[in-house]
Amino acid sequence: MKRAILMMIIFLIITNQAFAVRLKDIMDIEGVRGNYLVGYGLVVGLKQTGDGDQTKFTVQSIVNMLERFGIVVPKAQVKLKNVAAVMVTAYLPPYVKPGQKIDVEVSTIGDAKSLQGGTLLMTPLRGPDGKVYAIAQGPVSIGGFGARGAGAQAQVNHLTAGKIPNGAIVEREVPMENLNNLNVINISLRTDDFTTTSQIVDTINSYLRGNYAKALDLRNIALRVPPAYKNKVVQLLGEIGDLEVIPDSPAKVVIDEKTGTVIIGENVRISKVAVAHGNLSVEIKETPEVYQPYPLSPGQTAIVPRTQIKAKEQKAKLVILEEGATLGELVRALNAVGATARDLIAILQALKAAGALHAELIII
Question: What residue ranges of the chain are covered by domains with CATH 3.90.1150?
């Protein structure tokens, strides 16, 4: 009990402290973006864990590949279990040059059981414009294993998806503007709070000792490149990225009813209200009884259910939350009534309906 109280006190102390974050962790630069790549390929070398005969596109892919090597095989005669058709995906970071390597992910699209021990054959990776930007090939790492016997099996991690570190070579560069030639930099924030945006603008202008940054809206800031940083925009962005601010955020309560998770923001406030909460449990128990007719009588055997219903209601505990109660006071009060995660969801929804919860209630 003492340990639980100590952990709750530590939690309240941590949530009440304001932490500064670097600008690079909450901002993006317009035009500096990556791209997703995708391709269709074959993984070979599997040990009887590949696609079955019903996966027609795998058989067709093998036939087409062999024809390119000058080997003609009738499609009906192809019986393979050591080959799997896969989709290969990758993320192409910004400013990557031809010859550099990127990681790829491999996922089965047929009925293959495992990619353990397989090797991806040369696979072109295309962008949204249909052009090939990288070529992937190499042994697939699934980070686990599987073993199967006649009556049992063992498996560690997911066997039908894996990765190839540095498994693709970039063949084409995505055209991007040279940052050092820019006169105005557009900064996009990952936050959506006016206070935080204004604070970032003031921090940048204070560092540059001038009126160079200007907020365009809730999430975007226009930054004029100072004369001292002409043709040195990369250096400017590096210095600005290390500046620290204390982000603010609106009061929010997020509820995930599927898992019973509740997240309460530090700015949540409660009006003066009394909370009473008690649990009602109903137990229904059925015991079937069999009735047999007398020998040689015209009756039939019948099953009659006997139902027992038991209801138990816990005594409700009443607590009063004073006006302007903080997150810590809310947690202490709900712990006082013995609220579980499910109870907490019901209480928060009731507080919102009563107009006592001054926060945005989000249910996901």
Answer: 19-31+177-245
